[in-house]
Specification:
By secondary structure, this protein is mostly beta strands. It has 2 domains: about 10-150, Pnp Oxidase, Chain A (Roll), CATH 2.30.110; about 165-220, Rubrerythrin, domain 2, CATH 2.20.28. The protein has 4 helices and 12 strands; from the N terminus they run ββββαβαββββααβββ. A 7-stranded antiparallel sheet has the order 2-1-5-8-9-4-3. It has a 3-stranded antiparallel sheet with strand order 11-10-12, with helices on one face. It is globular. The two termini are about 30 Å apart.
Length: about 220
């Protein structure tokens, strides 16, 4: 089976958020879809291992922030490559409260839902939500997952529904290789972002950070 066929399906890039005993939390997601228009119903797929899954179960509510092409790509890394169990992901990410739930201020739109049903798979929960509020935050083109991969050069978090293990092989191989010849291509060993800027990587300032997951320059490996 060629799992690359799944990439021909359309996906967006979202932050699914909720409350954690009064603290805002959430995770990056790429599987969110409208199920019906009347009544408006939306479904999201969240990995069992994501802390957000537990919080949605406890609150019975979630919000979907639709990221745009001009949203800070660091938001994707913050919510996709860190755990809300031990970090406040909204530290440094501006939030606004809409429909009594936290949403990312830098998103282009938001949808607030009340959970009305859920379906369990071996690895993910599909939460079905009745839409209670929705709106536009700014004019921007919604970011597609193809844009995230091809333009931002980001990779899927391992808990994403669309994660394919093979896609991390290049980054993992680069991280484990010390004998490869110099290629001038540097890969973030955490999220797989590929630096291909005009400035040689060695000449970047020491405080340079990955634009996706915010890891330091030292997290990059040549490959």
């Amino acid at each position: 089976m060629d799992k690359n066929a799944f990439r021909q399906l359309s996906y967006g890039v979202y932050v699914v958020s909720t409350w954690d005993k009064g603290r805002a939390t959430g995770c990056t997601a790429n599987s969110a879809m409208q199920i019906t228009s009347d009544p408006a119903t939306v479904a999201v797929s969240i990995n069992h291992d994501n802390y957000t899954n537990q919080c949605i179960r406890e609150t019975g509510k979630f919000a979907v922030s639709v990221l745009g092409e001009h949203s800070d790509p660091g938001i994707i890394g913050t919510f996709g490559f860190r755990s809300g169990r031990d970090q406040n992901k909204f530290d440094g990410v501006e939030q606004v409260v809409k429909g009594y739930l936290p949403v990312v201020a830098d998103a282009c739109a938001y949808i607030v839902c009340e959970v009305i049903d859920r379906m369990e798979t071996s690895s993910h929960t599909v939460f079905l939500g009745r839409v209670t509020d929705a709106g536009i935050l700014k004019k921007d083109e919604p970011m597609t997952y193809a844009y995230y991969h091809n333009v931002i050069k980001g990779k899927s978090p391992k808990n994403a529904p669309t994660y394919i293990a093979e896609e991390s092989a290049a980054a993992e191989g680069a991280a484990g290789s010390t004998a490869a010849a110099s290629s001038g291509r540097y890969v973030c060993s955490v999220c797989g972002y590929v630096y291909e800027g005009d400035v040689p990587f060695e000449e970047l300032p020491e405080d340079y950070r990955c634009p996706v997951c915010k890891q330091p320059k030292s997290a990059f490996v040549e490959g």
